[in-house]
Structure formats: C-alpha cells, structure tokens
C-alpha cells in the first residue's frame, strides 16, 4: 500500500488538495530542470550525503533519483541546499539492501505537490508546472534476484 510523506507542520488546518493545487507556484514551460539518477550503494557512510550534494551542485543537477539507499524507513531530510526524500523497506530486516530516494534542490521545493512512497523499490514525486511533472524513483530487482521478487516488482 502506498504511503504519503507529510510535508506540513501541524500548526494550521490542512488545506484541501484543490486549494493546494490553486496556490502552488508553477514551473514555467521554458524553465530547464536537470534530472539525473544514481545508484548510491548505501548512504550510511560518513560524508556520503555531502559528496552527493557537491556532485549535484558541480554538475548543475536539480533533481536526483537514488537507488540502493539502504535507508529502512520512509523519511525526509531538509538540508541547506537540498531536500532528501526516502522510501525504505518495512520488512523488519536488520540489513536493508534496497531503498530509493529523491533529492530536490531547495529552490524547487515549493513546486512539490505530492510524494508517494510505494515500497522500498518505488516512489514518485509530483511537481506543479504548466504541465505537471512526475518523477519516478525505481530500483528493479537484478537478474540474480529470486523470480518471486521480479514478478512482485
């Protein structure tokens, strides 16, 4: 079952989805957004997040989808220049081998309409634009994975 990450503080009454749609700023059609993907092979090593952010800034990447984060829960991190969103496993395993995530440049954060975490291998982000933009982070099972995992994906 899909889960949604809460983007609001619980200080004011929640607006309806339609009200949020009308108030949200839009990405213009002529605006360029650079999107990339990266298998990060785990994010628990000290300094890994800083290295990824440095790479994104150096290459001008606005949105990065990640695979193999090894983050075992749905979560969000707001850092100085980027916001990180994770979709982790709920299997209760001690070691998490999967996990996906999306990093978005802080300047684009106001365009985010929705974030849906499906499971440890799939999540989506919807951005408000003249034409809405859907970003999908996916991590498919490898050829060596059990057939059951491949069919389930």
Walkthrough of the structure:
With 153 residues, this protein is an alpha+beta fold. 16% of the residues lie in helices and 31% in strands. It has 3 helices and 9 strands. The protein has a 5-stranded mixed β-sheet, with no helix packed on it. Strands 1-7-8-9 form a 4-stranded antiparallel β-sheet, with no helix packed on it. The longest helix has 12 residues.
List keywords for this structure.
alpha+beta; four-stranded antiparallel β-sheet; 153 residues; five-stranded mixed β-sheet
Quick summary of this structure?
The chain is α+β, with helices and mostly antiparallel strands and 153 residues long.
Q: What's the pLDDT, averaged over the residues? A: 84
Helix/strand-derived category reads alpha+beta
Number of helices, where a helix is a run of at least 4 consecutive DSSP H or I residues = 3
Lateral strand order in the biggest sheet:
2-3-6-5-4
Strand content: 25-35%
The biggest beta sheet, please? 5 strands, mixed
Would you report the number of β strands?
9
| Quaternary structure state of the chains depicted | single chain
Head-to-tail CA distance between termini = 13 Å
Radius of gyration: 16 Å
Backbone shape = globular
Q: In which range does the helix fraction lie? A: 10-25%
What are the low-pLDDT stretches, counting only 5+ consecutive residues below 50? none
- Helix/strand order, N-terminal first: EHEHEEEEEEEH
């Amino acid at each position: 079952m899909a889960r949604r990450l809460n983007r609001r503080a619980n200080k004011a009454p929640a607006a309806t989805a339609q009200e949020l749609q009308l108030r949200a700023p839009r990405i213009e059609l002529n605006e360029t957004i650079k999107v990339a993907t990266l298998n990060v092979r785990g994010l628990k090593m000290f300094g890994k997040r800083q290295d990824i952010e440095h790479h994104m800034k150096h290459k001008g990447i606005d949105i990065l989808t990640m695979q193999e984060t090894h983050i075992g829960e749905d979560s969000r991190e707001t850092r100085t220049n980027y916001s990180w969103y994770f979709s982790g496993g709920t299997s209760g395993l001690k070691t998490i081998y999967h996990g996906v995530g999306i990093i978005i440049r802080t300047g684009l954060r106001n365009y985010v309409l929705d974030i849906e975490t499906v499971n440890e291998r799939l999540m989506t982000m919807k951005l408000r634009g003249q034409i809405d933009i859907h970003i999908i982070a996916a991590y498919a099972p490898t050829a060596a994975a059990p057939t059951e995992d491949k069919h389930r994906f």
